[in-house]
């Protein structure tokens, strides 16, 4: 299985038993999400913002307005990092310091470039839309040329990455296991509720099959 090589920037030091460097496993974490936390520096201040993304191979796509401060800062710096995290359970232990969470977290590092060509922009936005909901792109109107020109699209080439996964139960001190205190997991998941049609929708427009399939899969 292909792995990202370890270096100072992506090596996991604390909790090495939870470290993951396999490309396929990291991609699985990325594909299970739609929002990543992007870090950048603006006028000497460190800022981290949630951003929707799309993934295609080792490329991550972000988009915004042509004046988007974050995207412009990333392009100026030439490098970026993004973290995607899924919270899977609360781990409730017998002592406060052994409380934890089960999670899947991936952090990416790479170089960025501005996508200029309209065909490349449209392909990147298609990737973004399919990350949000598979099949959605084919259910919407075509992108207008002026919309593409107003949109800044940034591509991140993933150069290295690492992930951490915790998927185990409570880990208390041995002397605490006989205490009369409940301990265990509270599993968590993000779910989709039934689709709600727009109040301005024309009459007799049914909910598309790709929306219903998404709902059934994530309810």
Automatic annotation (TrEMBL):
It comes from the Bacteria. It holds the Pfam family Pyridox_ox_2. InterPro entries: Pyridox_Oxase-rel, Split_barrel_FMN-bd. This is Pyridoxamine 5'-phosphate oxidase family protein. It comes from Tenacibaculum tangerinum. The lineage of its organism: Bacteria, Pseudomonadati, Bacteroidota, Flavobacteriia, Flavobacteriales.
């Amino acid at each position: 299985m292909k792995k990202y090589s370890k270096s100072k920037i992506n090596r996991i030091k604390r909790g090495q038993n939870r470290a993951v460097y396999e490309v396929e496993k990291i991609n699985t974490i990325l594909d299970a999400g739609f929002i990543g936390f992007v870090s950048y520096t603006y006028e000497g201040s460190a800022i981290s913002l949630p951003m929707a993304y799309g993934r295609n191979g080792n490329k991550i796509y972000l988009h915004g307005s042509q004046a988007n401060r974050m995207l412009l800062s990333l392009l100026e710096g030439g490098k970026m990092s993004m973290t995607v995290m899924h919270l899977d359970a609360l781990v409730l232990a017998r002592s406060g310091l052994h409380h934890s969470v089960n999670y899947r977290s991936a952090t990416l590092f790479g170089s960025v470039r501005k996508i200029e060509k309209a065909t490349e922009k449209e392909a990147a936005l298609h990737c973004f839309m399919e990350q949000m909901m598979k099949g959605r792109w084919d259910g919407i109107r075509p992108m207008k040329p002026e919309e593409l020109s107003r949109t800044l699209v940034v591509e991140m080439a993933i150069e290295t990455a690492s992930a951490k996964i915790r998927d185990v139960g409570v880990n208390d001190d041995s002397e605490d296991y006989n205490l009369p205190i409940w301990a265990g997991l509270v599993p968590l998941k993000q779910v989709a509720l039934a689709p709600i049609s727009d109040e301005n929708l024309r009459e007799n427009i049914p909910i598309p099959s790709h929306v219903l399939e998404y709902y059934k899969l994530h309810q």
